[in-house]
Amino acid sequence: MAFQFSQAGLDDLNGYLKHCPKKEAGLLYALHLVQQQAGYVPDEAVDVVGKLLEVSRSHIEGVLTFYTMYFRKPMGRNVVTVCSTISCALNGALDTVGEFEKQLEIETGETTPDGQFSLLKVECLGACDKAPVVMVNDQKFDGVKREKVKELIHVCRKRAGANGSARA
Q1: Contacts for 4 with CB less than 8 Å, ≥ 6 apart
Q2: What is the CB neighbour count within 10 angstroms for residue 168?
Q3: Which of 48, 101, 128, 152 is the one with CA 20 to 30 A from 27?
Q4: pTM, two decimal places
């Protein structure tokens, strides 16, 4: 199925582009809008964005592989990212990842069968002084040791049940 921006998304993008010196400058914003609408950046959307912004597919693919905030496949409603850089690793991030894998019964890079959680390891969430750091969607959690993982998952599930949205 071909990707098309919603009218609201297209209006938003066009409004943003008015402030850009070149169309290409709106690439990150356009990809953000795609992900907001589709939940990830499908191949078809890369072509659409490329045409709109007059940017090559290879350039867009390079951007998508550089930034960990863009997803190339459907993700769970709660995307759990665990920082794995040196500060977090030294403070137990690998144990934290292992506990998420155990509690969610998935491996890193997978999504739970119910579509509620995806688990990723990322390089640097920019909070070395609060290591190990975890993000669930757009919310950062500091000092997440193995013992806090079960509680964090419970909070996310509870929020999903309370408002029908699984976003943390």
Answers
A1: 48
A2: 18
A3: 128
A4: 0.79
